[in-house]
Amino acid sequence: MGIAYVNRQIRALICGALLLLTLSLGGLATSTAGSSKMDAREIPAPRKTDGYPSLGVLPPPPEIMTANERSKLKKELTAARQKAKKGAAQAVQPAQ
User: Fold this and answer.
1) Nearest partner of 85 among 93, 96, 74, 73, judged by Cα
2) What is each CA distance from 72 to 10, 31, 34, 67, 86, in whole angstroms?
3) Pick from 4, 2, 24: nearest CA to 12
4) Geometric angle at alpha carbon 23, from 37 and 16, rounded to 5°
5) CA distances in angstroms from 20 to 11, 17, 50, 74, 76, listed in the order given
6) What is the mean pLDDT of each run of 10 residues along the chain (96 residues)?
7) What's the CA gap between 96 and 90, in Å, rounded?
8) By three-state DSSP, how is residue 44 classified?
């Protein structure tokens, strides 16, 4: 019974060592493939294609209203204010 127990321990130890050896060698094979400095020189870096603008690039200026449009809008606003004042003044006066 003592010899069989030692054989099982040795067999388990050998199987564990082989398993660790294969896993470590497999990890080395995948981690070093294509990661040398010479490979990095041969392949150019891909261009950025994300939607973010580069630093220092300003967005286009917003469209500004022309003088004609500005004066027309100002006239419309003053007319609307006067109309609102007249309507408010008539609502405050008692009906006759």
Assistant:
1) 93
2) 97, 70, 68, 9, 21
3) 4
4) 150
5) 14, 5, 42, 82, 84
6) 74 89 72 56 65 76 87 96 88 65
7) 11
8) coil
CB contact at 8 A, 42 and 34: no
Distant-in-sequence, close-in-space partners of 73: CB < 8 Å, separation ≥ 6: 65
Q: Tokens representing 83?
A: 């109309």
Spans of all domains in the chain: 1-31
Contacts of 65 (CB under 8 A, 6+ apart): 73
Note whether 18 and 26 are within 8 A (CB).
Answer: no
- Provide the whole-model pTM: 0.33
**Residue 68 carries which side chain, given as an amino acid letter?**
N
- Determine the longest span between alpha carbons in the chain, in angstroms: 124
